Amino acid sequence: MQVQSYFSSLDNLDGELATLNLGPTHPATHGIFQNVLKMDGERIVSAEPTIGYIHRAFEKLAERRPYNQIAPITDRLNYCSSPINNMGWHMTVEKLIGCELPKRAQYMRVIIMELARIADHLVCNAVIGVDTGALTGFTYMFQERERIYEIYEEVCGARLTTNIGRIGGMERDFSPEFHEKLQKFLKDFPAKFEEFNSLLERNRIFMDRTIGAGPIAPDRALAYGFTGPNLRAAGVDYDVRVMEPYSSYDDFEFDIPIGKEGDTYDRFVVRQEEIRQSLRIIRQAYENLPQGKCHADVPAFYLPEKPDVYTKMEALIYHFKVVMQETPIPVGEVYHAVEGGNGELGFYLVSDGGRTPYRLHFRRPCFIYYQAYPEMVKGSMLSDAILTMSSMNVIAGELDA
Amino acid sequence: MINKSEMPEGYGGEGFFATSLSKAVGVARANSIWPLPFATSCCGIEFMATMGTDYDLARFGMERLSFSPRQADLLMVMGTIAKKMGPILKQVYMQMAEPKWVIAVGACASSGGIFDTYSVLQGIDKVIPVDVYVPGCPPRPEQIIDGIMKIQELVKNEPLRRRHSPEYQHLMEKYQIA
Amino acid sequence: MNLDNGTLLAAIERQFPTAILSHSEPHGMLTIETSREKIVEMLRFLKEDSETDMNFLTSLCAVHYPKQEDREMCVVYHLHSFRQNLRLRVKIFFPVNDPNTPTMTTLWPAANWMERQEYDFFGVQFTGHPDLRRILNVDDMEVFPMRKEYRLEDGTRTDKDDRFFGRDGHEGIEFD
For the residues of C106-165, what is the DSSP string, one character each? Predict the structure, then answer.
């Protein structure tokens, strides 16, 4: 193709390459990362990323916080879909202590996690639209995200950094307003989403901009540790929800969309299709929501009911122990992965029996796949490089941790 | 219902209106601020929601976001600033032309937030002077708008000679900003 | 052929009869311990052998155990075989005074930044790494902050009083 012959003529350039500093604060990079690009005119010859501008030392912080105080920290990893991070952490601890949740709690978790996935993909796709110049889709889709935020508020009280769920289940059952809001969302959202889709999916300008921008081959993607929509756009159908089902995902029927070239257009379309599949899962989970309790019977970790705390002695003692975090935690090490908005979000927890983890390592998908960025943009033009970065959905909180 | 901004006190008649220059300039400036969104983390997403249609920051006159510091009036720092980022923030602040205001949105920008760690700057007022702090983690869009309205009050009532006064020079020297 | 923990362990033992120093299955994931001399060969075998087929490096992290003599630093590799749907954890231990261990970037380019992060946090020197320098912390930091002897907070901060947080400034230094 043209790119090959271009590289063979590089030897004649000698000293004509320009160095361009993209970032760390730049309107087009959604997040804080710096890229020092060597450019030949408009084409990028090499890129060198620098990250760490929001390094908040999560792993060290987690060694100093008791188990239930780590959930708000996990919120801030991929903050566009924070319920998924929360649930991942709760499931890791439940795996360590060997706790099995009732079906109702698992279905409730699935509904919340899939709503979070929709919110995350909406941001990413709307932002791809913005970067190609289509601001309208962004303004419409953010309205839909507000509806999702209202649904979160019914469950946990917060919009963005939700801290949803507790170790052992969900903090409270769904309120009547939640049911109203979710039903309204399921009724109204698909039509609005298809409107947004029709703006971009077969739009000549959008397709010309995004097809061929930042492709990656499947074997390179696997070697670079890609997971999630980026890997599925390259053609590998790896999804943690199917490989190692957690929280009753194997009860639901859903498809995994994959792409062919791994370029920006494929990533966009894969995310669009995943939103439709997430809606399908939410419908199945909501229609078949079983009766039962919203939490497991682990009084050592889950706060007892308030009337019991005021009347019964054991409930009072458990309440005290849970709040003061004096619960004995088993010794051991566990690795648990969930399918986050960007791929396999893994938690490697080493416990030595103390109140806080001995070591907690987050396997952050954004950090791992951002390494491939220089290879993906080599030889492309600057505007394609910007599009590639925004289509990879790099969230700075997850990148730096 | 549309709220128009209030006319400053003055004496008017047919075809003329007399008021003090600082009041007129204040009203003009307060309703046409060009913000620079310095969005680093989660508060940045709440800012995007504030700019969205449900909470619409554009009705306060902030339709045009400026990403170039040279053309911005208000530096909105939203999100955690790590120590690695501190010098860059200071550089962006220094590149802005007077008069400039700073709003620290979120607990991390105000005081380090929940991240009391070795790598996080415990509040941006360690490197630049701040006018309004908006606490919250993240603050609701209504809170961010409240902070913006307070900035508008500050802008409206600022005396014209403030930036040349010795107290302001002393403030700049304290932060080692020339 | 379906792989499970037992057959995987047998396959590794067949190839490396002396290299497995210990093995266990905490929470269902086979965990084996080996030495840093054998780690590259073992992971290469696991990746390229058609029976084990561990094609994916899920994660790489380090753990600091200051109380274990001569085995303070531990590097943990999590591998995943997509076709067999099986995960494996491999650990190596080495002293903190000699924190050199071979790099995995020749097998998986994904290990590049993961190893830089562990160098940044713990000071593990990965020999053969193309570009081993700090990635997340400031470039001129002199200490390796995730080691147990360093505290979480910045000791020079003036606006927070440790007494009000129930800390006395010595957290983490004596860890038990």
Answer: TT-TTHHHHHHHHHHHH--EEET-TT---SSS-TT--S-TTSTTS-SS-TT-SS--GGGG
